[in-house]
Amino acid sequence: MKTQKLTLTVVxxxxxxxxxxxxxxxxxxxxxxxxxxGIMLAGALLGWxxxxxxxxxxLLLAAIGLPxxxxxxxxxxxxxxxxxxxxxxxxxxxxxIGLTITYLDRFNRTNFVTILLTILVFGVVLIDVSGAVGLxxxxxxxxxxxxxxxxxxxxxxxxxxxxxxIITIAMRRHFSVLRHA
Length: 181
Hints:
Layout: H1 3-19, H2 35-63, H3 84-106, H4 112-139, H5 143-150, H6 154-174
């Protein structure tokens, strides 16, 4: 891994940690957070390998008990809590966002719309559906009800996807290492 790419990977891990301390908005069982912007950026900026690695390192820090998750949480219990579905989806989302953008780069098809659609599919839909499944498994909430519950997050998640896309486009213009072709 090149030094610049390694540095950017560490920066993304740091951003994920810092985002844990941005106050969340309580919405019942699951809070509205900005941490998933970091997940979106991990895949979009770093590509599938480094993006996946950054999220895994961050989750390992959480698993050993460091307070790096939303609200300063950490430790193994969060991996089996009502929000565990989101947490388990994070590395997969970063990987799939990175893979898709890398594929699009090969054909010079990366632009605002393709990056936004990629982030919406994997950074919003995948994470929210996984969150619903986790909510269903842990709290025994009926799956259809858990899926409907996720609709409250969609407007905020779409805004976060647009923000992540804007940041991705701007960063890719300034750092050639972020183009994956």
